[in-house]
Amino acid sequence: MTAVLEATGLGKRYGRRWALQDCNFAVPEGKVVGLVGPNGAGKTTLLHLAVELLAPTTGSISMLGHPAGDHPSQLSRVGFVAQETPIYSQLSVAKHLRMGALLNPNWDADMAENRIRQLGLDPRQRAGSLSAGQRAQLALTLATAKRPELLLLDEPVASLDPLARREFLQELMEVVAKHEVSVVLSSHLVADLERVCDFLVVLVASRVELAGDVSELLASHRRLSGPRREAGSLPAGQDVIAESHTDRQSTFLVRTDEPVLDPAWTVAPVSLEDLVLAYMSKARDGQPARRTQLEVLR
Amino acid sequence: MIEFQLDTASGVATYLQLVQQVHQALRLGLLEPGDQLPTAQQVVAKLAINPNTVLKAYRDLEREGLVRARPGQGTFVVGSLPRTDPKTQARLIASMTAWLRSARDAGLGPDEIEAVYRNAFRNCFAEGVA
After folding, report:
1. B61-69, Cβ contacts within 8 angstroms, sequence gap of 24 or more
2. Tell me, what DSSP letter sits at residue A11?
3. Which of A213, A245, A269 is a domain's end point?
């Protein structure tokens, strides 16, 4: 299976500051990928490196099997919607579609017009007078009507109200179901992505902290709670991601491929949001969580 | 045709919720052999979930022999599930009620009773899984 997006030793430096360093991950085909991380973690930098708006300082990133910059034509196979869903506010909806048709070799005019009709947008309306939700939908229409194999969306729902957010994700998932396109969407909120993503890349402070298939990640993490115990006393196969203690009780979030058999523990599954937050605070508080004692879960 | 609902607070995996809702509909007789399930596209358009989740649920149901995908047409119900026998259900409710009364008579409050139940439930179903 080819990777639709693969980073190898990828890094980007602005002056003295590393916006992204030592990134390694590979996203298989046909996934909806959530790129999650706090503001300023490097999500936008990563997406801009992918679509060649930036050049990497170290390493490389490849899309659809080709390194960025290798094949000028490969950008026609990718749809990219930058943050704040840029549109031309003076142009009408119809002119946006016309522009899309002129600029893209594989433009699907029927699909674009159908979507505009379904969304109930007036083709004569100027894009600048659309609501935030409608603008996001217009940008998504433009990106999908070029019939890409991969869609990259930078914070597509951040500025939308809950209803527009839901409608946008419904539209997006319909596109995925219909055209079998792979998607990468970034967000600083896990809750936005929980329903739609089946692959997750967690970026914290310029590094990839976690990357993997959502169902595998959920299956391999457990929350253990029971009588007070030190992290060092857990079996070797259980990696402690987060821990918290009171004088009597200990709670651990562990990564393990083995079943937890110790009867002293109450074992519970972990939600995606808790999982991501645990990795984020682990990254923030510095690595060796195994020895430190006072670490909070959130 | 049935319509799927999603309970995001339940902690149950999304594909499993879809599977359970089909099971439930079969047990209640809302779905019968020959009925069509909503297409993946219809489900994602309503619930805003990943299409792979729907396909995974349908594959599970197909493996159980309950539905079959007909290429180009959709997914159709081909099997059925036994409805829980009303007598059995009544018997279980009666014994459960007796147990609850004895717990209450022993001085346990609702929370404690629930804790005992959860413990027993876990021991019964999750042996070795944890």
Report:
1. B61/B19, B61/B22, B66/B22, B66/B23, B66/B26, B67/B22, B67/B37
2. E
3. A213
**Residues of the domain holding A157:** 3-213
- Residues in B 36-95 with any Cβ partner in A closer than 8 A: 40-41, 44-54
**β-bridge mates for residue A202, sequence order:** A36, A210
Q: Is the pLDDT of residue A297 over 70?
A: no
- Angle (CA) A197-A203-A208 rounded to 5° is 105
Q: What is the pTM (predicted TM-score) of this model?
A: 0.80
What is the distance in angstroms between the Cα of A180 and the nearest Cα belonging to chain B? 9
A85 and A33 together in one domain: yes
Q: How far apart are CA A256 and CA A148, in angstroms?
A: 37
Comparing CA positions, the residue from B70, B10, B9 lying closest to residue B36 is B70
Query: Does A139 lie in the same domain as A259?
Result: no
- Domain locations in chain B? 14-77, 86-125
Residue A196 to residue B48, Cβ atoms within 8 A: yes
- Residue A24 sits in the same domain as residue A159: yes
In CATH, what is the architecture of B14-77?
Answer: Orthogonal Bundle (1.10)
Asked which of A196, A213, A230 is the last residue of a domain, the reply is A213
Digit-coded pLDDT (tens) for B41-64: 999 989 999 999 999 999 999 999
User: ipTM for the complex?
Assistant: 0.73
Structure tokens at A267: 């074992």
Is the CB of residue A258 less than 8 Å away from at least one CB of chain B? Answer: no
